[in-house]
Design brief:
Structural class: mainly beta
Strand content: 35-45%
CATH class of the largest domain: Mainly Beta
Number of strands: 28
Order of helices and strands: EEEEEEEEEEEEEEEEEEEEEEEEEEEEH
Radius of gyration: 32 Å
Number of helices: 1
Amino acid sequence: MPWRRRGCVVVLVLSSGCSGTAPPPLGPAPALTPASSAPSVEANQTPPNASAVPLASAPPAVTPVPVDKCALSESKVVVAERAIRGFDVDRDGQLYWVTYDSMKSETNVFSLELDNAEASPQRVISVKMVADPGALVVGRDGFWMAADDISRGVCGSRVAWLGRDATRAVPVSEPACVSGPKRAEGAEAVWATSKTYSHAMQVVVAKGPPPAGLAPLPRKVEASFQAVVHASDGLYLALEDGEVIRRRPDGVEERVVPPVFGSPSTDSRAVAVHGEHVYLASGRELRKLDVFRVPRAGGDRQPMGTFDVESSLAALHATDSGVVLHLYGQKGADRLLLIDPTGGCPQVELPIPDLTRQVVVDRDVAYVLRKEGIVATSFAGRAQARQAGGR
């Protein structure tokens, strides 16, 4: 409860107090006979050797503390659970996560209302499933998830569909190396499969429940899965030499970012789309990564920074308040950097995810899967700072 300062009024002549109840009414004051040796005091005159007593002391002036709109909220654990395999935030701001009990071969999906401080986790569905679930994406009528069957070897995973009223998960891909699924603007999910991680990928966009809702890309893609993103106006692919193309819903492909030729060649590593810009992470050196933003309608590259990296793998997440750059490290020692494209706020680091490297950025909040559960860090104040600065 906000604290409130209570004033203390000094009542002259007989009493002073701060009591919450008023004192009883006083009768007529007795007549005072001044001593002959005491000097006379006229009305409104301060007696000698005495200081004036104010009837009420004014509260001290409060200096407003400046608000740092570039500051982040304190990171907090929103779900304390060590058995989480994957999680997502739906379009209504509801958090979902999936757990797996290997002893029972049981997969459970839970949900939590993020906007309700009094809410508690609710079990949404529970099914028997031999494969260990992984990355999770919430659809309108169910859930897309990776399902890893270790008995099939390294590339024995599948993508599965679990309807909200289903009694079992339905595989929607053949055993392969699976990347994703991940969220898709303008659709539900996007994922990729390949024979091995060095082979070209088959990208699939899910627009609704299977099988009718699945739309495989007609051609295979020679790129990292992080260089694939689905936006409201189509599928964006970051290709060789830093080129970015957009495959529109009508199937027409158009160039958004032109290639940059040179020696050594430019390696496209990650792409994100938000608002009026495309964000691209690429590099000519294995240990260096350059991040740019380019107007969605086309234009020049605007540098956002060059970063030292330990791995060629990276991911980008773009929001109103900035860009989250996920730099993959050796043995899971990743880094999460929050970058302001305008330069109005300094670059800061966010909590590091666990070995599954799962990060979801939604409504200017970064949700990171760690050993202790799902940790959330808000940086929404940065959007307000940019709006105040007219950027």
